[in-house]
Structures are given as structure tokens and as C-alpha cells.
Design brief:
Blueprint: E1 4-6, H1 22-54, E2 59-61, H2 72-77, E3 118-128, H3 203-224, E4 235-238, H4 243-256, H5 282-291, H6 296-304, H7 306-316, H8 331-342, H9 360-380, H10 384-408, E5 415-420, H11 422-432, E6 445-453, E7 459-465, E8 468-469, E9 482-483, H12 484-495, H13 498-505
Parallel strand pairs: 1-2, 3-5, 4-5
Antiparallel strand pairs: 3-6, 6-7, 7-8, 7-9
Length: about 500
């Protein structure tokens, strides 16, 4: 992981794929030179030489496209929200637009079926959970609105394989406070008298998840031969240790496999889960720290937003010198405001002065800055590709053999679905070096589709973001029916082997 190269953005290459080997290097280099010039040519040859001779990871960073999202001046001083923040509904004519409350996903209306000579053989989905209450750490000490979760909440109980252990009562959690507990008032009430878990997937979020599953079923069930009931011999579902992913799974799977009532889902240990992810990688942590808190490229936007912070703090009651991270990024305010708007609640006012409220323009600025931050975290910072490779490399190490086994016909699994978080989908986008980065909203998904060409023994990969082929800044260009080997060797070039990744994380 020590070798990092920065290359200029490359458009779309239709000559030889970059991974074809030494014997094609010269032919590819000529085509590349014609398109992007001598600097990019030398950069790619250096990458190929390093990868082919050393066989180790050699991260190449490709800067993202420039847009309003990663334009700090616009984020600070522009107008409007960077998408929809008030409803899960997106009009059909504008489907594909950024909707924080319910991101666009694969569905029949927009789905583009490849030519008939290609057969779909394997699909892997990774998605963020659907909309929820805010995290407790993102609520004000005392909120000016209530939030009731009566009749909705996480279900928690154990179940055995047979007999009375398999016939158990469903248990649903609802939060409460008892004034006799002397510690009750040691923390803020947040939403006063709320019976919500913070966080939990809301009833509206479960509806979105069910629709998401139904839409995926409409596209993939017939193409992959999936029945009404989940068949664990050909389908696997994976969640993280955070309960909100299992809450989404319950609703999504009812839409995806409508006659299935009970499913065993996969979950890795909370000490090394690659999906969330939680595995230890001190090197990744130090890289991100260096280009955020340790860099004026990051801290400048916090300083420039001082007036906005002052207004938000006056409403929330958060201290300017807080130690909970409210002023190290806009994450806390973003979650607080967006969760309310997505559920039809009003923007907050001060509990001490009800005339002092967060305006829509101020909320929009928070949303623009939040998206700018995520673009910087995962794409704009030159070391972001290396960070993504280290931070999420373990998941890609698991994806690689899924694809390879499907190509070799050694894997009966046809469909894998991972339900995760924004902190999971974001490094996937960073790893693939998407051209236009955003903060992945609720229900956002990346879909890997593996196809086989009927008339030749070759496989191709399409990667969908928001239901459309993903456009990257890399030499792979748009991930639309690329040779699967291109992706497999791109993964190798980013992380090397498992031992390479582990060593790099602890170097």
C-alpha cells in the first residue's frame, strides 16, 4: 500500500483493457497516449509495470469530476438543497435525482436490459439501510418537538430450531424513562417522552425497504430464477451488528421473497466485520486523520462556516467548544435536520426562544456542506483512494472470490445482498473512484451484475449506482459490461492479497 500514484482523469477507453498483460502493454499504451497524452501514458505504464512485476498493491488516485457538490464556494454560499430532503417520493420523470430520504435504486421502469447475447449469472448488492430516527448522539439536549414510535420498533427475541424453542413470542422494544432512576436526568431528554430507539428504522423507512425489495424482485427474480421463497442454497443475506440493518432486512426480504417468513442472515463478529466495517486498520485511520483534522484543506470550511455554526448552536444549545464532534464536521447537524424533514417534521426552534429557528436556507447549506465533506473524505483528498482501499479492502477481498467463483461455475449462489451503512457504501464508491461523489442517502445501493456472453466463454460486469451504470474517473471509465477480469485485477491493484492488506493496515 505504500506506493501511490496520481493520474489525470481518463474518459472512456475502448481499446485494450489495462490488465491484459505484458504482451498487450505496448498496444494499450499507444491507444492510451492518443487519448490522454504523455503524462497519463507514463503514469499507466508505471502502474502496469509495478503491478505485473511486483504483484503487490499499487494504488492509483484519479481525481473526481468537478461539480457543485465538491465546490466549496458553492457549498458555503450557493442556494438550494443538493436534492430531495422532504419526502421518500421522487417523481417518475426525475427518478435518479438525489433523494436523501430514499435514494434511487434498481427498478423495472428505468432498468436497461443488456443485449440478448448476455445471460445474467450472479448479482451482489450492497446498500445503506432505509430512513430512521436520528442517532441519540445527534439529538439536541432538549428538542422542541416530540417523536413517537408507538406501535413500531425493533423486534428482539431468541428462537430455537424446533419444539417449544421455535414457538416463541415476538418481543418489540419501546424506550422509556423512569424518574426514580437518578441517572435519568444526567443526559438530555432529547425528544421529550419519546418511546423511540435512537436510532431505529421508522415505519416509513420499513415501507421504503419493502418497496425496495419488491422492485429488486421485479427485475432479478425471473432473470436469476429466484422463487417466492428464499432458497439459502442460491441466496445469501448479510447484515452488520447494528440492529437497524436487520430491521431493514425484515421488510426488504418480505418484498424480495414474499412467501418467506424466517431467514438466517449472515453477520461477522463485531471485532472484525468487513461490512460495517469495524476491523482494525490504524494506517487507514492515520491517513484520514492527516487529510481531515490535520489539514487546512479540511479545517478551512469549518472556519468559513463560523456564522452558520453560531446560528445552529444558538438554536440547539450545543456549546461551541463541545467535545462530541458537533464542530469537527457537519455530520451531527446534518443527521438531526434531515431525519426530521424526511419524516415530515419541522425544522427546530430554540426551546428558550421559540422565535429563533433554523431556516430552510440554513438547512440547505448544512446539506450542501455535508455532501462536500463526503466528497472530500472519499474522493477529493488525494489520499482518499488509499484510505478506501485500506478501510474497505477486506470487503472487496470477499467480493472478488464471489465473482471469480461465479465465473468458474463453482458457486451455486446467484444472489447476495448486503445491508449496511453510509460508512459502508461511501468507501465502496471511493474504492471504485466514482466520478461524482455524494453522501449516500437512505437506501442507496451499488449493484454488481455478472453476465456471461452466450457465444463465447467470457464474462462481463456491470456496476449500477442508483440503478444506472456507474461512471468512474479510472481507466475503467463507465462500469457498463466491462470484462470481469478488469474489475478483478483492479481490486488486486488496490489491495493485493489478504496478507498484503493486513500488513499495510498495521504498517
Amino acid at each position: 500500500m505504500a506506493h501511490i500514484t496520481t493520474c489525470p482523469r481518463i474518459l472512456s477507453l475502448s481499446a485494450e483493457p489495462w490488465h491484459v498483460g505484458r504482451f498487450c502493454m505496448y498496444k494499450y499504451a499507444v491507444a492510451l497516449k492518443l487519448e490522454v497524452g504523455r503524462r497519463a501514458l507514463l503514469c499507466q505504464i508505471a502502474l502496469l509495470t509495478s503491478f505485473l512485476s511486483a504483484g503487490r498493491a499499487s494504488v492509483v488516485y484519479y481525481p473526481p469530476a468537478q461539480s457543485k457538490i465538491n465546490n466549496l464556494t458553492f457549498a458555503l454560499n450557493g442556494t438550494g438543497a443538493p436534492g430531495i430532503f422532504t419526502s421518500s417520493s421522487t417523481p417518475d420523470e426525475s427518478y435518479g435525482e438525489y433523494n436523501w430520504c430514499n435514494m434511487p435504486h434498481v427498478r423495472t421502469r428505468e432498468y436497461q436490459t443488456p443485449p440478448s447475447e448476455f445471460t445474467l449469472e450472479y448479482v451482489e448488492v450492497i446498500q445503506r439501510h432505509h430512513k430512521r430516527t436520528p442517532y441519540g448522539s445527534n439529538t439536541f439536549f432538549k428538542e422542541d418537538i416530540t417523536w413517537s414510535c408507538t406501535g413500531e420498533g425493533p423486534v428482539q427475541y431468541g428462537k430455537g430450531p424446533n419444539g417449544v424453542s421455535s414457538d416463541v413470542t415476538e418481543i418489540q422494544w419501546q424506550a422509556y424513562r423512569d424518574s426514580q432512576n437518578p441517572w435519568t436526568n444526567s443526559v438530555g431528554p432529547g425528544f421529550v417522552n419519546s418511546n423511540c430507539q435512537l436510532p431505529q428504522i421508522t415505519g416509513d423507512g420499513l415501507v421504503d425497504a419493502h418497496t425496495h425489495g419488491s422492485d429488486l424482485r421485479a427485475v432479478y427474480a425471473s432473470r436469476l430464477g429466484l422463487g417466492d421463497r428464499l432458497d439459502p442454497s442460491i441466496v445469501q443475506i448479510r447484515v452488520t451488528n447494528n440492529g437497524i440493518t436487520s430491521q431493514v432486512a425484515g421488510a426488504l426480504l418480505k418484498g424480495l421473497f414474499p412467501k418467506t417468513d424466517n431467514v438466517a442472515v449472515l453477520v461477522q463478529s463485531s471485532t472484525f466485520d468487513s461490512l460495517e466495517p469495524v476491523y482494525s486498520c490504524p494506517k487507514a485511520d492515520s491517513i484520514r486523520s492527516a487529510y481531515t483534522s490535520g489539514s487546512t484543506n479540511w479545517t478551512t470550511h469549518l472556519t468559513d462556516a463560523a456564522l452558520l455554526y453560531a446560528k445552529l448552536d444558538s438554536v440547539s444549545g450545543i456549546a461551541t467548544a463541545d467535545t462530541a464532534g458537533w464542530h469537527t464536521s457537519f455530520d451531527h447537524y446534518y443527521d438531526n435536520l434531515s431525519a426530521k424533514l424526511c419524516h415530515g417534521k419541522k425544522l427546530p426552534c430554540s426551546v428558550n426562544d421559540t422565535s429563533l429557528c433554523v431556516t430552510q436556507d440554513e438547512a440547505n447549506t448544512v446539506f450542501r456542506l455535508g455532501n462536500w465533506e463526503y466528497s472530500y473524505y472519499f474522493r477529493d483528498a488525494p489520499n482518499s483512494a488509499q484510505y478506501a482501499a485500506l478501510h474497505y479492502g477486506a470487503w472487496f477481498l470477499e467480493l472478488r472470490p464471489h465473482l471469480a467463483a461465479a465465473v468458474a461455475g463453482k458457486n451455486k449462489i446467484k444472489y447476495t445482498h448486503n445491508i449496511a451503512h453510509d460508512g459502508s457504501v461511501s468507501p465502496v464508491l471511493g474504492f471504485l473512484q466514482i466520478a461524482n461523489m455524494v453522501w449516500p442517502g437512505m437506501g442507496s445501493e451499488v449493484v454488481f451484475e455478472l453476465y456471461k456472453a452466450k457465444k463465447q466463454n467470457s464474462h462481463f460486469l456491470r456496476v449500477l449506482w442508483g440503478g444506472r451504470p456507474m461512471v468512474t474517473s479510472t481507466s475503467m471509465g463507465t462500469l457498463d459490461m466491462i470484462p470481469v477480469e478488469t474489475m478483478l485485477e483492479y481490486i488486486d491493484s488496490m489491495i493485493g492479497s489478504g496478507s498484503d492488506l493486513y500488513s499495510a493496515c498495521h504498517s
